[in-house]
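Researcher: Here's the sequence for the chain we discussed earlier.
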Amino acid sequence: MNVEDLLAVLSRWIHVGAAIALVGGTVFQRFVLAPSLAAIPETDRGPLREAVLARWRIFVHSGVALLLLSGAYNAMKGFVSHKGQGLYHGLLGTKIFVALAIFGVAVVLTGKSERAKTMRGRSGFWLSVLVVLATAVVCLSGVLRNLPAT
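Model: Thanks. This is the structure I predict for it:
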C-alpha cells in the first residue's frame, strides 16, 4: 500500500468515525436523554443539561472540524475519479449542502448565545431535524460510494 492509498483509508476512517460519533450522539440525545430529562424534576434538569452540553460541545466542534477536513479530501478524490459524471457531482453537492446545514444547526445548538438558548428550548424539534438530515446524508453517501468511477 502506497502513501496515497494509506492517506485515503485514514481519511475514510476519520470521516466515518466522526460521523458515527455525532449521529449516534444526536440519536441518543433525541430518543434517550430528552425523554429521560422530562422524567426528572425541573430543578435537577438544568445542571444535568449544562453538564451534558459542555461535554457534547467538544464532540460537536471536533467532529465538525474532522468531517470538514476529511470530507474535503474525500470530495477531491471523488471529483477526480468521477470526472464528467453529472449524477455523482449533483448528489455530492446535495450531500455537502445538507451536511453544512447539519453542522450549522449542531453548532448553534451547542452555543452559548441567546439564539442557541432559544433553539434549545425546542431541542426535540431540532434534534429530530438533525436525525432526518443525517439519515439523508448517510443514504446519499451509500449511493455515491456505489456509483462506478470513470
